[in-house]
């Protein structure tokens, strides 16, 4: 039975990863939840509303850090631009 002891932490880690992955199965983008995102919000606040972005682009300039979150849902998308880690603008092609 001692030979299985080394696998318990690995099995626990895999189990936790599966559960956490299921908690955020990909947020369904709607005009209503995009409307909740307002200027000045942090990345964490946006992620709590829209989930993790499909892609992230970061430009770190000397005087400004610009990060763009892109959320894709089929042919539609939502783009949130952060300047110095706060929402500066957003754009949506959602039709619903």
Q: What does the average pLDDT come to?
A: 82
Number-wise, the strands total 4
Strand/helix succession: HHHEEEE
Query: Which overall shape is indicated by the principal axes computed on the Cα atoms?
Result: globular
Percent helix, as a range, is 25-40%
Q: Report the structural category.
A: alpha+beta
The percentage of residues in β strands lies in: 25-35%
Write the layout of secondary structure elements.
Layout: H1 7-23, H2 31-35, H3 43-50, E1 55-60, E2 65-73, E3 76-83, E4 86-92
Antiparallel strand pairs: 1-2, 2-3, 3-4
Textual characterization of the structure:
With 96 residues, the protein is an alpha+beta fold. The chain is built from 3 helices and 4 strands. It has helices spanning 7-23, 31-35, 43-50; strands spanning 55-60, 65-73, 76-83, 86-92. The chain has a 4-stranded antiparallel β-sheet with strand order 1-2-3-4, covered by helices on one side. The termini are far apart. Mean pLDDT is 82; it is low at 12-25.
């Amino acid at each position: 039975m001692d030979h299985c002891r080394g696998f318990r932490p690995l099995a626990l880690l895999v189990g936790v990863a599966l559960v956490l992955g299921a908690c955020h199965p990909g947020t369904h983008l709607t005009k209503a939840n995009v409307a909740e995102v307002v200027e000045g919000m942090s990345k964490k606040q946006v992620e709590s509303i829209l989930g993790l972005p499909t892609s992230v682009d970061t430009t770190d300039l000397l005087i400004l850090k610009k990060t763009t979150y892109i959320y894709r849902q089929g042919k539609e998308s939502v783009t949130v631009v952060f300047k110095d880690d706060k929402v500066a603008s957003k754009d949506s092609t959602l039709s619903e």
